[in-house]
């Protein structure tokens, strides 16, 4: 597993300062890279690590050219992090065993499912009747795609993903629950990645929709009739309740919860573990997390928090008192 | 896929105002229904949508009869939402391909498991020794039911469900952990629905118990020796720690956490993302969520929160001061 | 399924007071044990239950010897909870059907994976190329172990576990995301237990590392390049974001979230549902949970919380005012 610096520059561009014949065996972070590795500097704040690294070559932005060149070989590129991403792809393409497309013999694919011939259905997957899997899409192992759900092109679904289980629809009746059959499906666009054991429920009447370019991490729950807009990314363990409408280019931090029937416009960024309880109609960063503390401090503050409203009333009383005291 | 209004009324009751021969092709929300669709009005607050809808027929409560009839065909019923639920069931029964009961050839079912002949064990499920699957119960694909666990009648388990993995039982010993083998099982009643990738652990000594009519959404964790009472419903991503005893007719919102060994009486409603840290002995709605805000506002408030107890002390001092000032 | 008290004492030690020939059929908690059961008293605070239990024999600490002996047979041991854990193991070893090691015929194991002959690969598991499974390790059903991931000896992976899915690595580019291929793997030590549907992602460049003796409950998400130190235990639904470095002997409560790139030293204990937003460099117990309350009380307090910073400013103003008032 190796590439020369010349091969890298030829494939991905960038200005190479140094020996094009120099060969690297792996990609590594600056701090652990040895003379066999290529590394990258994504932010100037890591420049100290640049000076100290033993990497054979470092990918840097134009502003760091002189500093990097003084140290050894470097690749000067507009966006080192993006370049690094492309280099990981090049690396994988060159070194990973190619998995030929097709349906693994242990997968259970309904005769009425439509699988593009360039798609890959991995071991022990289940694709139900009427499901559609687009060109170049890969279902790793143990993925379920339910009836009539459609997955676009170039998607990647990791093990354990469940697309198209029933949404959670129940009508109360005499203390028990009557099931609302979920007659919609799930429609997933192109270039979507879905992490391990993530679930996207089918819609009640209409479809749950995941637009092009959406990236979902592991163990995420997407309820029925949710829309997730183009290029939105969600970190692990997020829960999105039914009929939430999330815009494009949003990011949702790990463990966050978005309640049902809310609207988040494009460009909303929700911090990890935040609970979104009302619609957000203005782009920006939103947060709601209890600041953690050592347990004793937390206990004192949490106990007081349960009387916060009273505290405000007492403060008001003092203010009135002070105001009247000042008016002789 | 179509039904006439007359067929619907004949099957489910209700008073039909309009042409019994009129045929609908789908169920749809009021706002997106066209003349090919039947819709429903669940709350008077959506009456504006009633006026505007293009639906062929609307299911309404008696109070809305005149308004609905003025617009076109309608079905007048006591509880439109319940009627809608039953209509989805009718729809599915008429239009979905019937899955014959039985064990899919790719399922791995122990010879000593007892599967009712009317049950359905889907593709790639695992049913271990001594497990019991009741009449009419359906395990969709990729469900595991562990040794000696019992599932009642008419249950529905979605893909990826794990029933009867070991509870998390550990005894500390010299800095390491000694496993407590989990000798109990899981007992699930009738008419229980369990969402995709949800896990219910087996008990340590006695059984984990899920009573009749319980509805669990996706990605829920139920620890060992928990009891979930009759007809309780939990939304996605809930975590219930070991030995919690949750009553009947409760609802637990998405992402909520119930700590171990707590008791929740019947009729407790826990809001989404709330952490239940002590027993709840009175029915009602309970909440504990940090209100989210734009990030800057949150930062200010969260920083202050870490000094809340001190604020109270300062307020007390001022009050004392004021009181003594007033006593000349 | 039965053991005599003599057999138990011979296998596990302890001082038996009572009839060694007495046979017990099951292990049970003090409160539900009948004369066919053996039970244990883990804490003196349950001594009332000791007096009332109908158990044939109770495992107790030396301090409880007289109280226990007065009641009936007992086993006096240094650490009753540890002894109980070992008794569950003895019970299981004696009574459970031995599962012979080997690869279940429905498992999909790559020819280039290395499976120790004493390991057990259960039904419908997937083990990819280059993966290594150590001696005595058990993969229950439906576990995926990805390419090049290594699992040590005596590990137990519950159904639905996913080891080595891609970490969530993305570089932003013109409003879309470019995938960072995840070139690292997952390295898991010896004696690790991993709960149902838990996911551990492969590293971006280097490996995600789970050290010896770690115990993970169900539905946990471990991001790429995380390190979890020796003997650390995490309860269900925890999320650990990428590159977090968690020390040894830590405990992380259920539903807690640890953000990325943070360091937790050895011996840190995080309470359930706490969000760790900065590194913790001192051992101890840490908590950050919004105290729940009845909904109306919560609403009042939460509304006030959104103005907490202002409250502090108002308090300051009053304090100044009071101070200047006192200085004539």
UniProtKB/TrEMBL annotation, chains A, B, C:
GO terms for molecular function: N-acyltransferase activity; UDP-3-O-[(3R)-3-hydroxyacyl]-glucosamine N-acyltransferase activity. Its EC number is 2.3.1.191. GO terms for cellular component: membrane. Pathway: Bacterial outer membrane biogenesis; LPS lipid A biosynthesis. Residues 22-90 form the UDP-3-O-[3-hydroxymyristoyl] glucosamine N-acyltransferase non-repeat region domain. The keyword Nucleus does not apply. Keywords: Acyltransferase, Lipid A biosynthesis, Lipid biosynthesis, Lipid metabolism, Repeat, Transferase. It catalyses: a UDP-3-O-[(3R)-3-hydroxyacyl]-alpha-D-glucosamine + a (3R)-hydroxyacyl-[ACP] = a UDP-2-N,3-O-bis[(3R)-3-hydroxyacyl]-alpha-D-glucosamine + holo-[ACP] + H(+). The active site is at residue 224. GO terms for biological process: lipid A biosynthetic process. It comes from the Bacteria. Transmembrane segments: none annotated. The keyword RNA-binding does not apply. It is an enzyme of class 2 (transferase). NCBIfam families: lipid_A_lpxD, PRK00892.1. Catalyzes the N-acylation of UDP-3-O-acylglucosamine using 3-hydroxyacyl-ACP as the acyl donor. Is involved in the biosynthesis of lipid A, a phosphorylated glycolipid that anchors the lipopolysaccharide to the outer membrane of the cell. Homotrimer. HAMAP family: LpxD. Belongs to the transferase hexapeptide repeat family. LpxD subfamily. This is UDP-3-O-acylglucosamine N-acyltransferase. The gene is lpxD.
């Amino acid at each position: 597993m190796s590439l020369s610096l010349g091969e890298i520059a030829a494939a991905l561009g960038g200005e190479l300062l140094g020996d094009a014949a120099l060969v690297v065996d792996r990609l590594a972070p600056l701090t652990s890279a040895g003379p066999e590795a290529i590394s990258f500097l994504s932010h100037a704040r890591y420049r100290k690590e640049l000076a100290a690294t033993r990497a054979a070559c470092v990918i840097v932005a134009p502003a760091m050219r002189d500093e990097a060149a003084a140290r050894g070989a470097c690749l000067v590129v507009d966006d080192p992090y993006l370049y690094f991403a492309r280099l990981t792809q090049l690396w994988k393409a060159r070194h990973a065993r190619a998995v030929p497309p097709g349906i693994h013999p242990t997968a259970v694919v309904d005769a009425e499912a439509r699988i593009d011939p360039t798609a890959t259905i991995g071991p022990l997957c289940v694709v139900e009747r009427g499901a559609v899997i687009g060109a170049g899409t890969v279902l790793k192992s143990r993925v379920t795609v339910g009836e009539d759900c459609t997955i676009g092109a170039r998607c990647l679904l990791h093990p354990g993903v469940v697309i198209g289980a029933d949404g959670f629809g129940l009508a109360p009746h005499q203390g028990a629950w009557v099931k609302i059959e979920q007659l919609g499906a799930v429609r997933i666009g192109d270039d979507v990645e879905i992490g391990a054991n993530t679930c996207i429920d089918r819609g009640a009447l209409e479809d749950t929709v995941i637009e092009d370019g959406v990236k979902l991490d592991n163990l995420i729950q997407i309820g029925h009739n949710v829309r997730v807009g183009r290029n939105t990314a969600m970190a692990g363990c997020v829960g999105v309740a039914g009929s939430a409408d999330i815009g494009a280019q949003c990011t949702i931090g790990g463990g966050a919860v978005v309640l049902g029937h809310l609207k988040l416009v494009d460009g909303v960024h929700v911090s990890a573990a935040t609970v979104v309880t009302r619609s957000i109609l203005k782009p920006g960063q939103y947060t709601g997390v209890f600041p953690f503390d050592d347990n004793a401090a937390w206990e004192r503050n949490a106990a007081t928090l349960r009387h916060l409203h009273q505290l405000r009333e007492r403060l008001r009383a003092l203010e009135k008192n002070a105001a009247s005291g000042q008016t002789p």
